[in-house]
């Protein structure tokens, strides 16, 4: 079961790595709210179709609706608004660096809320993995054709603020859902319920006559594609994989492995033109791989 959880978490990281790069342009041109609203409204019907195609509805425990609602409002809606704001201002690499704080939040909350504990060696391996992530993505900014993707637009303080808020919200949203899944609700169904609720809220919020909620520019087919694909990869595939991993294994360990997107992102940025990645990037990647390997050996 632990190997399945590990594979699910790493699969989620791969989806987020690709999606973060693709979503950078629409988040900057359309705006944070517009992209988040579009992604949620498109992802929710896809999830409900997948759930309806199986027998997932029978697993739902509606007595747990307060936890599902909390996960939707905090983990999905608030968390992803903060995430898009961080991506818009700091680019995908810095966003993923700050989002790597999420496993620490998840680990702490799982200890407080779920009474989950991990061994000393697991903790060391987790810290090794997170250190590798920090070193890998804490390198100097990208050059070449990737600079427009990886540059800073706005103050570093705002990037740090929104990234930290996103990390906490994501960790909180995952933890409050674990008891729901342990009670029998399938991960895909849990993913739909929280995404669907968030989509309803943000849909009606978008009807308010507020200029700040309008897209910053006209929606073109290219921008639509760049906004929707990361949404499907994130809300449908990545979140479902991560929830599955958390439902069968330690929340903190799964969250750490689910935060390896920045390292997976390095070769993608290299292909986009960042061909002069400094040695710290590869040192960080090596530490992350080592930490991940230790976690696998300890299972």
Automatic annotation (TrEMBL):
Highest rank taxon of the organism: Bacteria
Keyword 4Fe-4S: no
Localization: Cell membrane
Record keywords, A-Z: Cell membrane, Membrane, Transmembrane, Transmembrane helix
Membrane-spanning parts: 64-85, 120-139, 151-177, 189-211, 223-246, 252-273, 280-298
Cross-referenced InterPro entries: AA-Vitamin_Transporters, EamA_dom, EmrE-like
Signal peptide as annotated in the record: none
Pfam families, alphabetized: EamA (PF00892)
Ranges of residues in domain EamA: 7-136, 159-296
GO cellular component, one term: plasma membrane
This protein's record includes keyword Membrane: yes
Recorded topology in the membrane: Multi-pass membrane protein
Protein name, per record: EamA-like transporter family protein
Species assigned in the record: Roseibium hamelinense
């Amino acid at each position: 079961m632990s190997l399945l959880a590990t594979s699910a978490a790493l699969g989620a990281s791969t989806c987020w790595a690709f999606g973060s790069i693709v979503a950078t342009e629409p988040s900057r041109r359309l705006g944070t709210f517009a992209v988040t609203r579009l992604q949620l409204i498109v992802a929710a019907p896809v999830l409900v179709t997948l759930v309806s195609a199986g027998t997932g509805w029978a697993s739902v425990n509606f007595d747990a609706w307060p936890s599902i609602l909390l996960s939707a409002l905090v983990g999905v809606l608030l968390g992803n608004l903060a995430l898009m704001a961080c991506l818009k201002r700091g680019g995908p690499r810095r966003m993923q660096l700050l989002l790597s704080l999420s496993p620490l939040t998840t680990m702490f909350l799982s200890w407080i809320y779920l009474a989950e504990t991990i061994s000393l060696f697991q903790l060391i391996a987790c810290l090794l993995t997170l250190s590798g992530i920090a070193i890998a993505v804490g390198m100097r900014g990208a050059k070449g054709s990737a600079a427009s993707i990886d540059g800073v637009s706005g103050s570093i303080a705002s990037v740090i603020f929104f990234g930290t808020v996103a990390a906490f919200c994501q960790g909180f949203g995952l933890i409050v859902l674990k008891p729901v899944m342990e009670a029998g609700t399938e991960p895909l169904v849990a993913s739909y319920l929280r995404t669907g609720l968030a989509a309803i809220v943000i849909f009606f919020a978008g009807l308010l006559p507020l200029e700040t909620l309008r897209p910053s520019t006209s929606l073109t087919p290219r921008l639509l594609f760049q906004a929707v694909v990361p949404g499907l990869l994130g809300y449908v595939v990545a979140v479902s994989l991560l929830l599955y991993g958390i439902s069968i294994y330690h929340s903190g360990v799964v969250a750490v492995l689910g935060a390896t997107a920045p390292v997976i992102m390095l070769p993608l940025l290299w292909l986009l033109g960042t061909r002069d990645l400094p040695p710290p990037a590869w040192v960080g990647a090596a530490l992350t791989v080592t930490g991940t390997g230790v976690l696998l050996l300890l299972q």
